[in-house]
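User: Thanks for the earlier help. One more: BREX-3 system phosphatase PglZ. Can you show the sequence and predicted structure together?

Assistant: Of course, both are below.
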Amino acid sequence: MTSWRDHILQEFTPGVARLTLVADPDGLLLEEGILEGIRGRGFEVIPFEDPVSFRYTYESGFRSRWDRGEETDLVVLLRSGEGDLDSLPYDLLQVGRKLYFSLGEIFPHLSYPVVAALDRGDMDALYEAQEKYAPGQLGDNATKEFILRHVFEITPEFIKEPKDLLRVLLRRHYRGQRVPAVIDERFVQLLRQNDAFHCWPLETIVPDRENFFAFLQERWPLFLDRLAGEGLARARETGEPYGLAFAGPLDLPFDDGDVRVYLDNLFLERLLQPLPHKAAGALSGTWAGIGVRTDPAGDRLRRLAGLMKNLRSSIPAGNARHRDWLRFARGWAELTALIHGLGEVNDSAGTGENRDFRELQSQVDAAFTAWLAGRYAGLGNLPPAPPVMLHHVPRYLARYLEENPQGKIALLVLDGLSLDQWITLREALTLRRHDLRFRENTVFAWIPTITAVCRQAVFAGRPPVLYPDSIHTTDREPALWAQFWVDQGLTQNNVVYARGLGDGTLQNVMDLLSKPGVRVAGLVVDKVDKIMHGMELGTAGMHNQVRQWARQPYLTDLLEFLLERGFQVFLTSDHGNIEAGGCGRPAEGAVADLRGERVRVFADALLRDQVHGRFPEALKWPPVGLPENYLPLIAPARQAFVRRGERVVCHGGLSIEEVIVPLVQIEKLPAGSTCVPVNTAGTPAAGGRGME
């Protein structure tokens, strides 16, 4: 077998049985490549989780088609052991064939608990190494070290001095590589055997991406001092004059060749913040100039050029994993925020840079649309930890509560906030509050990217196909949110929901959150959505208005209230938005169930086809995860169903800005730690030093 997937895919031959029941305790069939392979063979996959939801999907989507004589190949997936298949409903057991897959069968010589902790996307490298090196029977520690070497490309015995460790951690954390805790613990144990790292905060910076970059950030000004000729004598004489939050060495080898190669991208993507320095003039002419704040306009243009160069060469391919697009979206958001958030850049950049951006935007739109057409259908069934789609978020939060039985969670849904506008919002929040840390991730919204579809998915914790009766309204959100948490074992009194937030006083929401027993809060902040629907100045105007709103006390006061009362705060959005030009307004009258600016929705395929005939470049989106009678027609790229020549800021389509949205955990830093203050240009304010 050339791949571990072959062990599984060989069992799926079309036409053998219309129903296949699979016991899959390790979630192997939920791996992205397996799902694609199974669907490529004509099979549909339904996880058996909630019996009521399953029965609805099964009866409406498959049983009814079988009764009409249609042939389909269906896989019912049970995340449990082989013996538990008999717990499935009797009517399924009567007609379904049974299969069982486990990691133990695929990796028989490696420690099962260790392999089970791996992300399924990392198993390709592990299987290849197993086949190539035939390691024999390995115990826990030997399996961990085998995985370190052959999956994560970390050879502990070669890490002998600080530059070696920095290179390894930079590669890992820049890529956003997720390493299981059990493997990180072994890695730290091995590093602790080397006296060179005895004072390093390994337990903090090895597993934690944000801590690692914060550790680098607060060492950067000390390095600039050394590079400028000031040395570290003063620092060593006075202890730690910079108020460092992390223990460890003061002097890091940023100038080592293998370390330097990462620094440009770290500063371009704002994983590290450039700092002012009294020797900025001299430093700006060196390789370290990317991390020194000098002339704001010049800094912005250099960053603009660097981001466009990097992004142009890193557009994910058609067979890319979803993580590749989630990662790309973050760099794209930084570029978009820079282009649209700074009028000075647009004025000084001239037509060349703007033309280059538009050309790159067209390439990204085409690549992302093609990728969605082939891969989007499999995203909904992926495991919810880490979340991939919006409806995964509540289940991800539920896992947190399981691990923290006394914990409290607040989910803030900023209606309509795009990822690039989150960049602008984050900078404004950091200006007001230097003691906030943002653990940033991204997730996919549902398509079409409209509020009634996407926001309900957040609060229901289920795909839209399972709330067909309310798919045109948001009125059931409070009930869906409460029901999700009651199903997790909480009571109605533990759960609160509030909407219409963003302006005025906080008193009502403070009273709501102060009720005894409240452990979960769902809060809809719709200020950005209101800004969007009244916006006449395009995306640049959106960024300006979001920045102005974030500079007001409302959001920071809300965050302070939640954090002070022990809530773990998560922020997300239901969909983003783009600036679009009119392609004409369909005259379909009342035949469309929804007449949005970026999408029309029909209950009948023939009606949709009639409108599509007048707009042939529009996209007939299949009802992926949607009710069968919910048929979207999406406007062409960067266009809207409004009068030709008109420009609007809107949503509903499938651009990267509309579909990939932020998911951010917001924390309060320990006393004495601060973030680097940033100004509206995304560069540190004068005198700013400390944690990112």
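User: Great, one quick takeaway?

Assistant: The chain has four domains: 4-101, 152-288, 376-576+658-668, 580-650.
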